[in-house]
Amino acid sequence: MSTSASTHAQLHAALARLAPTERLLVALDFDGTVSPLADEPMSARALPAAAEAIARLARRADTTVAFVSGRSLKDLKVISEHTAASPVHLAGSHGAEFWHPGDDEQAASDPEADAEREAIITAAESAVADIDGAWIEHKSLGLGLHTRLCDATDARAAQRRIDALVSERAPRWRRRVGHDILEFAASDAGKDVAVAALRESVGATAVLFAGDDVTDEDALRSLGSDDLGIRVGDGESVAPVRVADVAGMARALDLLADLRAAARARARE
Question: How far apart are CA 18 and CA 12, in angstroms?
């Protein structure tokens, strides 16, 4: 579809169609969707307007909000400013890790797998140590090569080195490419599977999913006729609706909160 943002009328109509559903799941990517992309990934935080709209939706008994991210669950908790009392569900590592309200905060660990992964991460850090701006993110189930601060030539060189390393040391790890990041994970989980699991667990009658990157397209393609997908920013997408940026997504969530309150009030009359 076109990379131009949908008009306000188109966005309003799409959200208004979704708003009356009995049980709504609002599943959101984090980076580039509710938070601007950051040169220092752990400094990412939701825009205040997005955080406020998310809180409005999450307070509703008929609405569930979830962050569905490629970040490890541990890091997703940090950037989303998670607390044990949070009503927002979390799906980290593309859906390989979950936290639901009421869950224990302690994560299970596999020492042998952890040691193997850390050895590969150490080797990856050595492989790109001489490339200015390239760095390796430690993930719960793998690693991420960040090249946002590299020039194009150095970024390609770093990617070739990490591709070769992982092909040799962990050939079964799943490869993904996103905005200035090359990721590998021991899990084959995807955001489509994460959204399906969340839908089932909360009994959602419709889903809104929004994302800004290639890895979000799995979830967008999985949506049904009663659902709504939103693409944030540029890039090819199957989403029928598009907003220009994170600020536009915050406004869309606020509008959804208004429309949902009005629609559900009418349903009770």
Answer: 10
pTM value > 0.85 = no
Range of the domain at 148: 111-185
- Domain end: 185, 207, 242, which one? 185
CB under 8 Å to 34, separation ≥6 — which residues? 28, 46, 47, 50, 51, 54, 67, 246, 249, 250, 253
> Nearest-CA neighbor of 39 among 156, 153, 181?
181
Read off the tokens for 38. 């950051």
CATH number of the domain at 115, please.
Answer: 3.30.70
CA distance 163 to 128: 12
- For the segment 122-137, what is each residue's pLDDT rounded down to a tens digit? 999 999 999 999 999 9
Contact 253, 50 (CB under 8 A): yes
